[in-house]
Amino acid sequence: MSGPGTPAPDPGGPLLPTITGHTGTLLISAGDRLAALITGWLAEYHTSAETRRAYTRELRRYLGWCAEQQLDPLAARRGDVAAYASMLATTIRTRADGTLAPAPKPASLARALATLSSFYAYAVATDALPRNPAAAVRRPKVPTAGVTPGLTADEARALITAAATWGHGPTHRAEALVRLMLATGVRIGEALGAEVTDLGHHSGHPVLWVVRKGGRRAPVPIPPAPARALVAYLHTRPELTAAGGPGWPVAEAGTPLFTTATGARWGQPGAWRLIRALARTAGLASAQGIRPHSLRVTAATVGHRTGADLVALQQLLGHATLETTRRYLRQVEDLDRSPAYAIAAELAQS
């Protein structure tokens, strides 16, 4: 048996039978008891499809490591989880192209341990286990403030211009995504997880019905410019039936709102690369730090600066509490009110 520093094996090996269902496909190394717990945990705690996929990936990696260690995941103790965390923190991985990838950043390690703790907490809550072996394992500290840069209104307009003239990928797709996210603040997972049939009208407003965290469906109003970009993009897709006038195209249930050139659902890695490339094309000073979440932060900060009510912003963004919305705005407000500008102005007069 290999030590804790050994990289986890490919979890697609023969020790790991396949479980399929509404939660997706997950490879596991234990019997039906573990399978039932995983299915229940994913279904009850993580109703967002994107969240289920992310947690499935993390759990699959852990179960592969358990198979390598000949460890029953339901018999794991705190020391076992700590050994797994140590392996993650020190292992240099090989990418698909053969280059070496560094050990994961603190945020990635913290997310992996949070996944395990969530799963084991569910097992304890359902009386499958007496204790959570991941609960007390120390997690790296991850900064929560200032990690996602937002854009100014001018920068956001430059990003829209870059998207509108983007010559790669499906026609109009870049502009449709960027305009939608900047105007409404939807999460990237909400946008990419949506279907064409989630477009509609509610109380006289064009809307996109999205699945918020916790599984709640909510309508997000789509202003005219993003609506036009979406219609232009959707009308290029041959599998959709164009509606007359300003209406949304007609599609079969399950048809993704955003797709790849082959018609498959567009994934977050591709959208991430696109937004970073658009930021570079737009000449944004912070291009290297721009990510999809930056567009959501921008929607909040631009909305706040134009006088949007804090409660209205909370509803638009789908935040559970006002404090979360305030965290989006606090750093920008602190910079706007910084005495550094008044000090520099006073010194300039001397």
Question: What report would you give on this structure?
Answer:
- Among the domains are: 18-125, no CATH class; 154-288, Intergrase catalytic core (hpI Integrase, Chain A), CATH 1.10.443.
- The protein contains 13 helices and seven strands.
- It is globular, with a radius of gyration of 23 Å.
- The protein is mainly α.
- Strands 5-6-7 form a three-stranded antiparallel sheet. The chain has a two-stranded antiparallel ribbon with strand order 1-2.
- The protein has helices at residues 32-45, 49-68, 78-90, 106-125, 153-164, 173-184, 188-193, 224-234, 268-281, 292-305, 310-317, 322-336, 340-348; strands at 18-21, 24-27, 93-94, 100-101, 199-202, 205-211, 217-221.
